[in-house]
Amino acid sequence: MTVVSVSMPESLLDRLDEFADEHGYTGRSEVVREASRNLLGEFEDQKLEGRDLMGVVTVVFDHETSSAEQRMMEIRHEHEHTVVSNVHNHVGDHYCMELFVLEGELDEISTFVGKIRATNDVLSVDYSVIPVDDFEMALTG
């Protein structure tokens, strides 16, 4: 197996080690491998291919120590055909939360989420995706 070096803040490394211990992993490498497989597989769900999707993306960042807010605005404008709605809230003394509502196909939504995740200083990214036709069937069915 190939050995890879990864840079991360000490606090994240501590959390990773604690998680490995608490959940019975043999070490941090096993956790990182599983997380990588899950991340790469997230948008490879064949049931979502070619369908209109609705997505919600929540992003948290520290507005005092980063340029993440500017990058959120840039990404929103780059994907204005996918972003249906965007809400910006201040949380606590230093944090901002961006909530994006998206509508589009799998590749458009996965590209959007990928750009958000790749933004420096983002503290948290959470999202969900649902096919629009599933939602419509639940309402009429």
Q: In words, what does this structure look like?
A:
- With 141 residues, the chain is of the alpha+beta class.
- It has two domains: 10-41; 51-140, ACT-like. Chain A, domain 2 (Alpha-Beta Plaits), CATH 3.30.70.
- The chain is 42% helix and 28% strand.
- It contains five helices and four strands, in the order ααβαββαβα.
- A four-stranded antiparallel β-sheet has the order 2-3-1-4.
- α1 crosses α2 (28-41).
- The mean pLDDT is 86.
Q: Can you tag this structure with a few keywords?
A:
single chain; 141 residues; alpha+beta; Alpha-Beta Plaits; 2 domains; four-stranded antiparallel beta sheet; 5 helices; 4 strands; globular
CATH superfamily of the largest domain: ACT-like. Chain A, domain 2
What's the count of strands? 4
Any guess at the CATH architecture of the largest domain?
A: 2-Layer Sandwich
Rg (C-alpha, Å): 17 Å
The quaternary organization reads as single chain
The DSSP helix count reads 5
Class by helix and strand content? alpha+beta
Short description:
This protein is of the alpha+beta class and 141 residues long. 42% of the residues lie in helices and 28% in strands.
Please write out the topology.
Layout: H1 10-22, H2 28-41, E1 53-62, H3 68-78, E2 83-91, E3 95-104, H4 106-117, E4 122-131, H5 132-140
Antiparallel strand pairs: 1-3, 1-4, 2-3
Helix pairs in contact: 1-2
